[in-house]
Structures are given as C-alpha cells and as structure tokens.
Automatic annotation (TrEMBL):
Name of the molecule in the record: Pectinesterase
Any one Gene Ontology cellular component term annotated for this protein: cell outer membrane
Highest taxon in the source lineage: Bacteria
Reactions the enzyme catalyzes: [(1->4)-alpha-D-galacturonosyl methyl ester](n) + n H2O = [(1->4)-alpha-D-galacturonosyl](n) + n methanol + n H(+)
Record key words, sorted: Aspartyl esterase, Hydrolase
BP GO terms, sorted: cell wall modification; pectin catabolic process
Pfam family, any one: Pec_lyase
InterPro entries: Pectate_lyase, Pectin_lyas_fold, Pectin_lyase_fold/virulence, Pectinesterase_Asp_AS, Pectinesterase_cat, Pectinesterase_Tyr_AS
Domain Pectinesterase catalytic: 370-654
Pathway: Glycan metabolism; pectin degradation; 2-dehydro-3-deoxy-D-gluconate from pectin: step 1/5
Top class in the EC scheme: hydrolase
Keyword check for DNA-binding: no
EC assignment: 3.1.1.11
Length: 666
C-alpha cells in the first residue's frame, strides 16, 4: 500500500500535468488548435468541452463571428450572454477563417464523438454559406450584408477560397469531413462551387486586354477591383491571387477556360516577381522589431508586392491616409511593421505549375467545325464564350456551336476574327443567354450604352438561331441585349428581350431578322444598319418609340419591316413607329399589322424640325387598329405598288452576284 505522502505527491503531479496541459491548449491559437491537434485529442473530454463553447458562439443563422478564441474557458455570465446574443447577426462572417474553421472543428469532433448536435451545427453552418453566396458566385465578407467594402466579393485573406475549399471537401467527402449532407444539399454545393469558379474566371483582371490576376476584393455588381481599408487600394494582389490559382489548379478535369486562366495568371506571376530585393528587420537590445527595410540584393528568392497598380503592375504602398506611395520607406513605421507588403505565396504556384501543365492542356474537340456547349459538362465546353474563343479565326468552313438548353449568364463577344460562326440553340424558349449591364452600371461616360450588351456580334457572316438573348437589368435606362455591328448577319427564330435599347442593329452592313420576337420600351431597335425584319413580332412595353434609326446619308435602305406584327402590353396606348436618331433615318413598314397602341401620327421628329426634310419614313398596306394612313404626319410616306417593288429582300440584303443570296442559306 502506498504511503499517504506518496499518494499526495502523485495527486500534485497529476494536477500539475493537467493544469499544464490546459494552459498549453489555452496558449494555442484557435486556428492552430483546429488544424494541428491529433485525432486522439478530438476524442478527449477537453475537445468536447471546447465544443460546448463552439456551439454557444454559433448564431441562429448558422454562422460564427471572427477572431474569437473559442477554446478559452467561459464564465457562467459569459455563457448566458452568448445564449442571449444568438439572434444577433451583425458579426456573421467568413473573414479570417470564421465559420469555415468552426465547421471543420465540428467535423473532426463528430468523427470521434458522433453527437448529433455537432452534425446539426455543421449543417446549419453549411446552409449559412450557401445562403450567403451572391447569384454571380461570389461571397461577401459579412452576411447579412454590411455597408461599405465588406459587401464586396472578398478574396482578401483567402475568405472566399476558404469557403470553396470547404465546399469541395464536403462534396468529395475528403478528410477531415465526416458529415455527409443530404443529396439535395450536395446538389446545391455543386452549383455553388460551379458559380464560384465562374465568378473567379469573370473577375480575373484584364490589363490591356490580357488576363492577369485578382484584386483582394471586387465589386459585387461590376466585378471590377475595389478598395477596402484606407491602405488597401484597388490593385492587383500578389498574395490572394496565389491562393485563387492554387484552388483552380486543384480542379479535376478543368475546362479550357480554367486552364487558360491559370496559364495567364502564372505568366503574370513570372512577369511581376522580384528577385533583387530582400527584407531586413532591425531589432533593439530586447529583440523587439523596431524597423523594417528593403535592401537591394542580387539572386534572392522571388517575392511579390502585396499590391500592384492595375495599369502597369508597379508595387504600391499606403498609409492609413489612403495616399499611394511608391516605396515601403515612404509610409509610416506603424504601417511598415503592421502589414505584410511583400509575399512569397506565388512561388507555391510556380513550384507545381510545370507538372500541372503537362496534365492539363487545352482540349481540342474532335470536330472543330461542330462544337457543343452544355452547362452540365456533357459538351465540349460549359461556356459559350469559351467555345467562341477556342474556335479557329477566319475559318474557311462554317463553325456551328450547338448550345444545349440552359440559362447562360454570360457577356458574350463574337470577335471580328470569328467569322462564319453559327450559335444554334437547342430551343428558343430554353436556351437563354442573359446578362444585366446597363448605362449607369458601366460608368464609362456618355457612350456607356454601347458597352451594355449581353451579346455583341463584330464578325461578318454570323448566324444566331433558336436563342433567347436578354438584358435582364430591368427598366433602368439604356441596356442592350443584342448588338450587331457587322455584315451578313442572320438572326433567326430568336427572342430579344429588354427594355430601352434592346437591339442595336448598326454598322454599314446587311442584317436579316426572321421569325423573331423583339421587345422593349424606348428606341428598342436602333442604329445605322440596313436591316430586314421579316415575320417578326415587335412588342412595346411602354408608351414610347419603337425605332431610332441612324441610317447614313445616301444609304438606299435603313430598317425595313415586312409582314411583322406590332403588339403591346395591355395598358400601352401611345407608341410611335420611330424617331430619327440621326437626320437621314430610313424606316419602312410593309404589310404589317399594327396594334391600337400605335399613335395616329405614327412618327416623331425628335424635336428636330430639320429632320422632317431628310428622313424617310414610309408604310405600305399597314393593317390593324394602329393603321391610320390619313392621320400620319405629312412628312411621312405611303408607298404605292410601284414603289414597293423596289423593296425586295434581294435589293435590300443583296450585295453582288457572288453573295447576293447569302440570306437564303440561313
């Protein structure tokens, strides 16, 4: 039997060990405790005790606040305060690892201790992350949203990438995930990941037309770089961009668009690396850092500036006054020491890039003249723009891009070199291309209208067929759905949806619109092209003007509508057939059915009396309640049978003997 003194000694030793162990846990940062603790520790009573704190800190909507040392003991008073504050959501965030790291803690804990409370809290956190995602695929720093920069899409401190990595691990059931959500939630996770990837690709910054890297935060509407705190200006990030690229490189079977984004980012990392500079810290006699300086030094390991100019990649530094400086020496000591102005994270990308590149090359379809786009990955591409960009320039044979049913939220450009291309939808009603740019959103001055397009056609010999093309911004000013600036373009069996300025049919070329539905409010068919509209429904959504032609002087034909039906919303009663955007506007309606919404006078001079002498506005055999030839303005025309013989499709759209009937091949 042990003597009493010996027993007392053992108890004292055990108490010392237990206390020391508790102090060790308390001295660890919360993040280190989550990621560096062993699986056996997660089975301990200590881990379960900390879990009670984690459950207390979780808010009613599933989130957690940031920068909380949740492993520290709580008093009874603190516990009561946390219970009372569960409905307070103002500090709900993904910043500094919040919410993601607590979910990982609970997952590791659940694997060792299958307590249903841990699972419930984990799934509540998952629902919070899914709810917080913007429709464009980004995540704000705080949700519910707070005013200021925290509502921007937040790559800063890897906030959005932390969420995407967690969602990917949940989807694939990678370690340390031990909780499997329902099939319905797994589907939502897959959609969220795909939207997140799409957001990353769309926010990659174009510098003189070349994709580069990312800003720490991007505007949630325009997707453009934005400033955050006063010393964090809108710039290109050497740090956050690295984690973004590493996430893209981890995607299994990446699309051509992802591969291209990685290749471009790596090229930017190579271009911006600094190898002739090193950081030196100066310390006092007590070992405290009192200064940080950058010293020129040859053949150093690469570093990158944390912030670089959007226009030229020049490193920038800033104090809390928000004034940009060129060197770290120009900012105050507090900011020099209190922020990481140089990073080495891009080196992790460069270290694995060559091996990654060997396995991930741009995929060429088996048939380069017949491509398939499908959102579900069953085609050659998941993005229409990607299919266009990977098509041969100036091809001899027509390239047909078949687009499967789906809603494609893309801003698409068919470049001047993408000639002889056809976008063929699976069905007009279900193959939808949509975007939501509008005049004030673009912020590019008086000509912002021309940048608002959802689909821009700059290439000759383009065909659009069986598609819905929509500007979804709403009645918010000028917002183009389809912009066509080129020659010999056919738009067949398409819905063109929008409000003001829906269709910009312009340029000096010939355009053919057949069996289309075109809607809008003001001037919703406008521009300078020679355009023939046949068997189309032209639908007015507001008392306003249908056309605003800007036909060049001496052009034989402007806009010609044949066998079209003009309709309107039920309450619409005062619509003009057109007004002259430019003084030589030409617009003619042949054998069209005009609804009662068309005003008796028919045409408007845009308050330019001189335009009445130079415009050519005419009709032939209009019918319906809106057909009122006797009441039309006296400077418009009613064509005779002899006049109308000149308005054949051959005369309007033909060019020369060799391609006179290009429109018959559509």
């Amino acid at each position: 039997m042990l003597k009493f003194k010996t027993i007392k000694t053992i108890i004292i030793v055990l108490l010392f060990v237990t206390t020391a162990k508790a102090q060790l846990v308390n001295d660890l940062s919360w993040r280190n405790l989550i990621y560096k603790s062993s699986p056996t520790w997660y089975a301990s009573d200590e881990a379960k005790a900390i879990a009670e704190n984690v459950l207390l800190y979780q808010r009613d909507n599933g989130c957690w606040p940031k920068n909380i040392l949740m492993h520290l003991p709580l008093s009874e008073k603190e516990k009561k305060e946390l219970i009372a504050s569960k409905s307070t959501l103002k500090d709900c965030t993904i910043d500094n690892g919040a919410t993601s790291q607590e979910m990982i803690f609970l997952s590791k804990l659940y694997q060792q201790n299958p307590d249903e409370r841990y699972k419930k809290a984990f799934l509540s956190g998952l629902n919070y992350l899914l709810e917080a995602q913007y429709e464009n695929g980004g995540w704000p720093q705080f949700y519910p949203l707070k005013k200021g920069y925290s509502s921007h899409i937040t790559y800063n401190d890897d906030a959005m990438i932390n969420v995407l990595n967690l969602l990917k691990d949940i989807k694939l059931q990678n370690k340390p995930i031990s909780i499997r959500p329902s099939d319905e939630l797994l589907q939502k996770i897959e959609i969220a990941i795909n939207k997140g990837i799409d957001c990353i690709l769309k926010t990659q910054y174009l510098q003189n037309g070349i994709p580069t890297s990312w800003c720490a935060q991007h505007n949630e509407f325009t997707l453009l770089p934005e400033a955050a705190r006063s010393f964090e200006l809108a710039s290109l990030s050497g740090g956050e961009s690295a984690k973004i690229v590493l996430f893209l490189m981890a995607i299994e079977n990446p699309s051509n668009k992802v591969i291209t984004a990685v290749n471009n980012a790596v090229a930017w990392f190579e271009k911006t690396k600094i190898t002739n500079l090193k950081e030196e810290l100066i310390v006092d006699e007590k070992g405290k850092v009192i200064e940080k300086i950058m010293i020129p030094s040859q053949n150093e390991k690469p570093i990158w500036a944390r912030f670089m100019e959007l226009e030229n990649n020049k490193p920038i530094f800033c104090d809390r006054d928000g004034i940009k400086k060129e060197t770290i020496a120009e900012i105050t000591l507090e900011r020099r020491l209190g922020y990481a102005w140089y990073v080495n994270a891009p080196q992790k990308v460069l270290d694995i890039y060559e091996k990654w590149k060997l396995k991930n090359v741009i995929k060429k379809p088996n048939d380069e003249t017949n491509l398939v786009v499908a959102l579900d990955g069953s085609g050659d591409f998941t993005s229409i723009q990607e299919a266009i960009d990977q098509s041969r320039a100036f091809p001899y044979d027509r390239i047909t891009i078949f687009i499967k049913n789906g809603i494609y939220k893309e801003k698409i450009k068919i470049h001047e070199w993408n000639t002889n291309i056809t976008l063929l939808g699976e069905s007009k009603e279900k193959t939808i291309i949509t975007f939501d740019d509008y005049f004030n959103k673009m912020g590019l001055g008086r000509n912002s209208t021309f940048y608002t397009y959802t689909l821009l056609v700059q290439a000759d010999d383009t065909v659009l067929k069986n598609l819905t093309i929509e500007n979804s911004s709403g009645e918010i000013g000028q917002a183009v759905a389809l912009s066509v600036t080129s020659n010999r373009v056919g738009v067949i069996n398409c819905n063109l949806l929008g409000n003001q300025d829906t269709l910009y049919a312009t340029g000096t070329g010939k355009q053919y619109y057949k069996d289309c539905y075109i809607e809008g409010t003001t001037d919703f068919i406008f521009g300078s092209a020679t355009a023939f509209f046949e068997n189309c429904q032209i639908h007015s959504k507001k008392d306003s003007y249908i056309t605003a032609a800007s036909t060049p002087k001496d052009t034989h034909f402007g806009y010609v509508f044949k066998n079209c039906k003009l309709t309107a919303n039920e309450q619409i009663r005062k619509v003009y057939l057109g007004r002259p955007w430019r003084n030589y506007a030409k617009t003619v309606f042949l054998n069209c059915e005009l609804g009662s919404h068309i005003l008796p006078e028919g045409w408007h001079n845009w308050s330019k009396p001189e335009a009445e002498k130079t415009t050519f506005y005419a009709e032939y055999e209009s019918r319906g309640e809106g057909a009122n030839s006797k009441a039309r303005v006296n400077w418009s025309y009613q064509l005779s049978k002899r006049d109308v013989k000149n308005y054949t499709i051959q005369n309007i759209l033909g060019e020369n003997e060799s391609n006179k009937k290009w429109y018959e091949k559509l």
